[in-house]
């Protein structure tokens, strides 16, 4: 069985490992989430928010683990931020997963059935537009697209374009390959948020147990030290008069003289 100091060191090492692991996962969540949300102009991804919250909570946890005086307060703040990050990771995992599954259809992209339109050098994607012809089984229709856009006529509903369940155009991309990268980044962000969800729960539980473990590396003053310090104190006046009759004068009475006044002569 470990002594109290060894038990504290083991708990500290375990808490540090889980906190550092959560910090690494939150860094990946933030990086992949930002890469996904900046891939296109019309697809907004919010999967990087849990990375910010979990990363800050992990940073506070690492600091709190190494503190001595305010360790409990810092770990409580870390647990609060990690708890908010867990909730955000749960929400973003559902949102990004549902969005990738329902609103992005990768089959036309993988089959090379989507086209990329660019107006050339010198035109912004939102300043130049053109019309392209999309063919369906029974008819054809015109689709107005902007520059630097990947569009899929297979996903465009000529009768009612507003009822299209999947995105049929992606703005501000360099090629249709960027859309495939977006699809993969969304699923990667979803998986990382799920990992951050469970790892955040475990880390918060470990930090919550570690904050109440007493630190025995700094010994407190014992009762023996207190008794020794009491024995080394000089005897007081009351103890020096012990054993004398009640009418006897004290052994030593301090005499005070006013300024300029001479003491009486010594009489043997």
Automatic annotation (TrEMBL):
GO terms for cellular component: membrane. Its main location: membrane. Keywords: Membrane, Transmembrane, Transmembrane helix. Residues 222-268 are annotated as: Disordered. It is found in: Membrane. The keyword Transmembrane applies. InterPro entries: TMEM255. The chain crosses the membrane at residues 16-36, 48-68, 75-101, 191-210. It is a multi-pass membrane protein. Pfam families: FAM70 (PF14967). Residues 222-240 have a biased composition (Low complexity). Belongs to the TMEM255 family. PANTHER family: TRANSMEMBRANE PROTEIN 255B (PTHR33721:SF3), TRANSMEMBRANE PROTEIN 255B-LIKE (PTHR33721). This is Transmembrane protein 255B. The gene is TMEM255B.
